[in-house]
Amino acid sequence: MPRDDFRILSFVNHIPVHPRVEEFLAETARRGVDAVCSQGTGMDFGPYMLGSGTQFTSENFRENVRPYLRFAQQQGVPFVFSVGIAGGRDQLDECLERVDEIASEDDLPLRIAVIDGELDREMLSTRIRAGAQARRAVESPHLPEMLTPEDVESAEHIVAQMGPEPIMAALAAGVDGVITGRALDVGIYMAPPLHAGFPRGSTTHMAKVLECAGLALHPGDPSEPIYGVLERDAISVYPVSDTQAATARSIASHSMYERDNPFMEKNPGGYLDLTDATYTEVPGSGVRSQGAIWVDQPYTIKLEGARREGYRTIAVFGVREPAFIECLDWFLDNIRSTIAGSPRFGHLDEGKHYRITFDQYGRNGVLGPNEPLGGRMPHEIGLLVDVIAETQQLAENLAYFICMELWIKPYPNRQTSAGNLATRFAPPTINVGPAFSFNVWHLLEVEDPLELFPFEVVDFPRGR
Amino acid sequence: MARLRDLAKTLRSKNCDPFNTTFDVFFDTEDAYRRVRDSGRITPEVLAPLYGLTTDQVLGIYFLDNALAFKVTMVKDIASSDPACKDVFGAHQHLMLADLEIPEHWT
Questions:
Q1: What average pLDDT score do residues A282-309 get?
Q2: SS3 at position A449
């Protein structure tokens, strides 16, 4: 007997859990729920976490998911979580450790299908050598048009956004839930209803609206969950708290959030055409939408990879003396040329062996050369010295040299001969570690959506 | 004249990928929306110089009459991929657009 509707509770698992979560879960239980879904991967934070294998504190992750895991188990419905921000193997493993702690501490046995989101680089370069095509996902001069084996090998880590299909295959294995590394955000929300036989158009649209939880509501707050009811040809979304409402405006605007084209939601295997979508407010602070159309295209998997560009050392200063602010640009240019002409660093090329960035917060630190008010003389500047060099040692030595110049070197009309600026930290140089860029941002053509993403069933707590 | 920030209800910027920024602007009234839409100011020729871009780096401008909104997508001058990026999320790129002067209705 086919189902008439499918109900999903959505939250974001890297955002601190809401203090009223138990109230929200009781309200959800009253309404009924078929799956609990949560995204926890994304590249909004830049390439660092992917390159370095790090994430936000995983203790935070553990406390964020704990009430939702318990809730899904109590309700007897599956959960699907993507975890670990960049979602590589290291981050996934660390999150699974935290899930293991929940399972032990709360006496919550869980059978979970785990799907790795990181690709083995050798496997990928072998595929490319054998003729697999991966074209850049955006037309940027910073990316090679077609991915080469050399690009793959120079990346520290490469993850791939699995679509809903590998998750559906895992759900079919009779597990309590699925935990993935890097995954397509909307795929997390698509998998349970697609698995239950719902059509791709309305399913994808509901997934897009649910993926950032309460951010799609008014006022937008992604720490609150959101509740969606999927029908065969319509979606309805509701808050679970009394402080938010779905409005036609909030849901329509979220449908185009962080997408380059407001009418086209691109996904593996096709896109969602939102041109004719309508949004109507319904009782219960909800919004009902119809009219989204799924259009099939060749199936591609989005790859993301980060390459190490060097090592970073920073320093932070405050500049308040008007005479120094007056000549600061000139002074900073002088530091660059002093370094370039110094016996110690003169054999190195700026741009090749090292890179120095001075950000002047209070003048144009946010907008750089585009700052419309950049010509005004501020009363105070926060100066960030950012050095990236081939080795951590070189970055630290350059930063130390710059700090000394900033402290002691004379400038025109100086009265403050005991020191040029205010020092925030001692020692002034802070080694930050490696710095990365995205060198892989490509779409890999695949025959089968499942082929890169096998699942493994694990019983938690482990080792019993 | 009024600035776009005085006419809009919501005015936001965010990465749509590490190399591009997308801007969403929403209005409360049909009147404010049409004033902006028909001002001739939301064009690549006007916007590109504010962001230090060439006109072909303004990748798309979309007006959504039903939603009283428009969207602009542009190349990010310092990509979030760049370790020296000053705005990794792209959440503070809206400012030049927000201060854009919009003339009175053409009547």
A1: 97
A2: coil
Rounded CA-CA distance B84/A6 in Å is: 45
Q: What's the rounded Cα separation, in Å, for the pair A150 and A134?
A: 13
pLDDT digits (tens, 9 = 90+) for B69-87: 999 999 999 999 999 999 9
Locate A10 and state its tokens.
């959505």
CA distance A200 to B40: 39
Q: State pLDDT tens for residues A386-419.
A: 999 999 999 999 999 999 999 999 999 999 989 9
Write the residue in B17, B51, B62 that is nearest to A261 by C-beta: B62
pTM of the model: 0.95
CB contact under 8 A, A256 and B26: no
| A309/B83 touch (CB, cutoff 8 Å), yes or no | yes
d(CA B32, CA B102): 10
Q: Could you give the angle at the alpha carbon of A244 between the alpha carbons of A241 and A245, nearest 5°?
A: 110
Closest CA to B69 of A267, A291, A263: A263
Report the candidate in B103, B98, B96, B102 with the shortest Cα–Cα distance to residue B49: B96
Q: Which residues contact A130 (CB under 8 A, 6 or more apart)?
A: none
HEC profile of A292-354:
CEEEECCCEEEEEEEEEEEEEEEEEEEECCHHHHHCHHHHHHHHHHHHHHCCCCCCCCECCCE
Half-sphere exposure of residue A442, counting CA atoms within 13 Å on the CB side?
A: 26
User: What pLDDT is attached to residue A463?
Assistant: 79
Per residue in A34-89, pLDDT (tens digit) is: 999 999 999 999 999 999 999 999 999 999 999 999 999 999 999 999 999 999 99
DSSP state of A18: P
* Chain A residue numbers touching B51 (CB-CB < 8 A): 370
Q: How many Å apart are CA A10 and CA A16, to the nearest integer?
A: 14
B60, B80, B95: residue with CB nearest A261: B60
Interface test with B, best of A45, A251, A309, A367 (most B CBs within 10 A): A367
The complex scores an ipTM of: 0.94
Which residue among B71, B73, B95 sits closest to A367, beta carbon to beta carbon? B95
All residues of chain B having their beta carbon less than 8 Å from the beta carbon of residue A44 are: 15, 88-89
- Say whether B75 and A441 touch across the interface (CB within 8 A): no
